[in-house]
Amino acid sequence: MGRQNTLDDVWRFIDTREGNQDVCWLWTGARSGPNLDRGYLSINKEKKLAHRIVFEMFNGPIADNMVVRHVCNNGLCCNPKHLILGTRSDNEKDKVKTDTIGLPVPAVREIRRLLASNIPQAAIAKFISSKYGVECSRSTVRNIKLGTRRSEDEMSAEEIMNMSAQEIRNKLT
Known about the structure:
alpha+beta; 3-stranded antiparallel β-sheet; two-stranded antiparallel sheet
């Protein structure tokens, strides 16, 4: 029988970007979810979400009625500075307030920067998918270019991370 994973094994599958706390730490292990946008680790034959494991390591147990939210809007991110506790309702409000197409705010800003440099949309999509570990198509890049998929009142992950949990809650309500 092979070696069994432990909770500490979560770090084998997280690219911590050399400890840079300002960027997403992407999960590189097994994925699940409709868009393969959630990382998980099997422990004792039970799938555990990677970002929840990390959150509990830094903050303690999570109540049954709570979820771990990504302030960066990147489901593969495991950076503890990007993870906050909230309700399912909070999480749904996050989706509306941040980005309904599922891309992290920094990725959308980078797409806009790259579009201004006249880089082909297909190349931008491939680059963003690779860098942020998310699905990004040429049509998504085109929609961002046309302004049809995102509002201009977005907040960056950096702006959100500099806010207290209460300030974030106030912004989302």
